[in-house]
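Onboarding guide, step 5: your first structure request.
Type a short instruction followed by the sequence, for example:

Predict the 3D structure of this protein.
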Amino acid sequence: GRPVVAASTVVGRPVAVAAPVAAAAAPAEVVIVTWNANRVAPQSGKNQNKLARLVERLGRVDLICVLEAIVTQNTKARARTLLDGYDCFITRVQQAKEPKGAGVAFYVRQDSPLAAGARLL
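The system replies with structure tokens like these:
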């Protein structure tokens, strides 16, 4: 169907607005990428360096959110070091004999405005 456009009207007295203040510096542009993947760190095969190849192809990426990421105790260390220059935060590491479940792996570029003060803003 056709999009619906809502209209608005002023109700009551107009409100006085102060003179505009000098504009603050524009925040730095950031690039955020999401990727729905099964495993962050495949052990072998052509997908072994897929995340690094993706970042290389895209150029500067500030934050990568890998959704549905299955990270086990055996792959945790490798997952954290997949990308040079990025810090990795994993929401869920699957324990041995635990039912399968996925989490999110966040890769934050270390020189990104999002990493200011060593925390994701």
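Each response can be followed by summary notes, for example: The longest helix spans residues 50-58.
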